[in-house]
Amino acid sequence: MAVLKLQSLKPRPISELSMKVGSIRCYVSSCRAVLLPRFGGPEVLQLRPDVPVPDLKPNEVLVRARAVSINPLDTRMRSGYGRSIFEPLLPLILGRDVSGEVAAVGASVKSLTVGQEVFGALHPTALRGTYTDYAILTEDELSPKPASLTHVEASAIPFAALTAWRALKSTARITEGQRLLVIGGGGAVGFSAIQIAVAAGCHVTTTCGNQSINRLIAAGAEQAVDYTSEDIESVIKEKFDAVLDTIGVPETERIGINLLNRGGHYMTLQGEAAALSDRYGLPIGLPAATAVLFKKRIRYKFSHGIEYSWIYMRADSEGLHEIRRLSEAGKLSIPVEKTFSVTQVREAHEAKDKKQILGKVVLELD
Domain Enoyl reductase (ER): where (predicted)? Predict the structure, then answer.
């Protein structure tokens, strides 16, 4: 399918930009985007008006972004996490989550149409992220936006929920009646995991700070333990079929492993692949990470009879559509604590760095 580019430095309404003329789909060739030219603090982020919009591949979708959420991965990448992988490829566009409208589609895209409201998330290693007026995602990374949610509300969900989905559904394969422990249920991934597990008919226990207890109980957790004032191992008396550890320090790993039934799954978000690659470089770091993971899997298999996994978000079309269904049914949501204009991206990152805002932060693009 041929593509005709239209020159534009400022975003215009979808009706002006996304039009189908025979077999030609038209879209802008440049737009605003937040660039990361080097690693550092929030001050390194640059909002530029004329960042190129690449040609669409056959399976890709151009999305006019209306809201994008800030994930911990964004602030960590900005600070240098994954340096060994990303530094040769600077400048980057940060951002994984997006909610907006379809502006154009690639030749092989069948499930989405121009003008349709969508939400979705890019994989963790994407170089061109979503802090931009026009984001590019594959068809499998997008789903129709839940009609009951605003773009701000929808943008907070996909990356965190898909991370939790991969842990619970693809790795642990939780089933009705099983028991799940979420270590760190107050964050977006942990909160998503609680809601997904409850919707699947599981019994959920979680650890969290005191300020999150009521919210997690309301989401369906049967027990919420304040790790700041209670001894987790003394308070929790039962064993679990799966443990999702969103904190991933040695102490929470030890606790999680010891609270598992034989045959259970321990899953941590804090895999060491990027950290070891940054420390030793890709040629040494990646093999070292593989060796660490293999060693832990073997050790815990023989010592405790459990499965051990590092969890990363990945595109999952089936999972995203189920997340949409749960959101539509009011069974899955991630509260947004504050919104910023994309022109205030530095302020938003600074607030997250200083822990001035503990909940979800969303950037709006007008």
Answer: 40-363
